[in-house]
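This section describes the prediction task in plain terms. A model, or a person checking by hand, is given the sequence of a single protein chain and must write out its three-dimensional structure as a string of tokens. No templates, partner chains or ligands are provided. The sample shown here is typical of the held-out split.
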Amino acid sequence: MALTPDTKVGFLGAGKLVQAIASGLIDVKILKPENMMASARTEAGLEEVKKLGLTGTLDNNKVVSECSVVFLAVAPKVLPGVLKEVKKLGLTGTLDNNK
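The expected answer:
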């Protein structure tokens, strides 16, 4: 899938990595900020991505449900819990090799 400015892209996570990737995609006009969404565990964690123009949410499932492309950008220690949470959506192409 090629990214176009209208592709809906989501990030599970809203930290410095997400901010850097999103800023880069916006700066080179690959994506529009209004077509990007990021999730965080707290409202405070969303402040910086909202400053970039991204939609912020505390709901990982909302990101996965509304976006065509999703980046996993959380700390390794929380990744299993995040994957378990979004797996409930019954997605195809899962990253879980232990089905």
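For orientation: The first helix runs from residue 16 to 27.
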